[in-house]
Amino acid sequence: MQVTVEQLQQIPFFSRLDLDQLAQLQTHAMVKQYLRGEIILHEGDRLPDKLFAVVSGRIEVKKTASTGKETILRTLPAGEIFAAPALLGNGSSPATVVAQQDCQILTIERTAILALIQNAPEVALQIIAVLTERLQLLHQAVHGLVSERALVRLAQYIQQAAIAEGTDATPQGVLLRSRLPYYQIARSIGITYEECVRLFKQIQAIVTYHRGGKILVLDRAKLDAIAQGEYDVYR
């Protein structure tokens, strides 16, 4: 399906481009619809020489270990790019990308992106910034899986979700706008579904989990202390 100028403008990288630049990209861009649960990219697949971005919906980026254990590396909302190695050419998908919701995925030919960079070098800097951020987050995730207790990782994950998607104040506490089912949290912080349920029970005076993945933070200061490894829920 042909992309519209309005859809291109939804991607932060392109929001400041003028109409002529957007029109040049438009001729080399396509949008494809994916249903919830549908695989967009398989881990190890050869990546086509294109830029990938989420126009609407949300995706999961996950990796499967040799033991069969699956870990969700990131969830990306509309406006985010992914599979960035494709822009460098000769890349293979480092992880599997799945539609977490019904979504629209934009692809733009690499040659068009390179032509754009010649006229708007700031786009290249934005892409480098994204790659740097992803590497830092991956390093933090690996470090956390190796060295941090599961409860600390859970608290940090809740904090990150609150920052990424925002929160709403309620009379009871702070409600995360993200909907985070147990399975997603467990796979993201490297624990089992059952352990995830158990951890939430341990901190139910600080954070409560409600049906549908709703998370309510009752005591933000104590959650921050857990995330820093400075609070013992048993004391």
Note down, in words, how this protein is organized.
The structure is a single chain. By secondary structure, the protein is an alpha+beta fold. It has two domains: 5-145, Jelly Rolls, CATH 2.60.120; 148-227, Winged helix-like DNA-binding domain superfamily/Winged helix DNA-binding domain (Arc Repressor Mutant, subunit A). It contains eight helices and twelve strands. The chain has helices at 5-9, 19-26, 110-119, 122-147, 150-165, 182-189, 193-202, 220-227; strands at residues 29-34, 39-41, 50-56, 58-64, 70-77, 81-82, 96-99, 103-109, 167-169, 174-176, 207-210, 214-217. The strands form three sheets. Strands 1-8-3-6 form a four-stranded antiparallel beta sheet. A hairpin with a 5-residue loop joins strand 4 and strand 5. The termini are far apart.
What is the compact description of this entry?
By secondary structure, this protein is of the alpha+beta class. It has helices at residues 5-9, 19-26, 110-119, 122-147, 150-165, 182-189, 193-202, 220-227; strands spanning 29-34, 39-41, 50-56, 58-64, 70-77, 81-82, 96-99, 103-109, 167-169, 174-176, 207-210, 214-217.
Give short descriptive properties of this protein:
Jelly Rolls; 2 domains; 12 strands; Arc Repressor Mutant, subunit A; 235 residues; four-stranded antiparallel sheet; 8 helices
Please specify the SSE layout and strand pairing.
Blueprint: H1 5-9, H2 19-26, E1 29-34, E2 39-41, E3 50-56, E4 58-64, E5 70-77, E6 81-82, E7 96-99, E8 103-109, H3 110-119, H4 122-147, H5 150-165, E9 167-169, E10 174-176, H6 182-189, H7 193-202, E11 207-210, E12 214-217, H8 220-227
Antiparallel strand pairs: 1-8, 2-7, 3-6, 3-8, 4-5, 4-7, 9-10, 10-12, 11-12
Helix pairs in contact: 5-8, 6-7
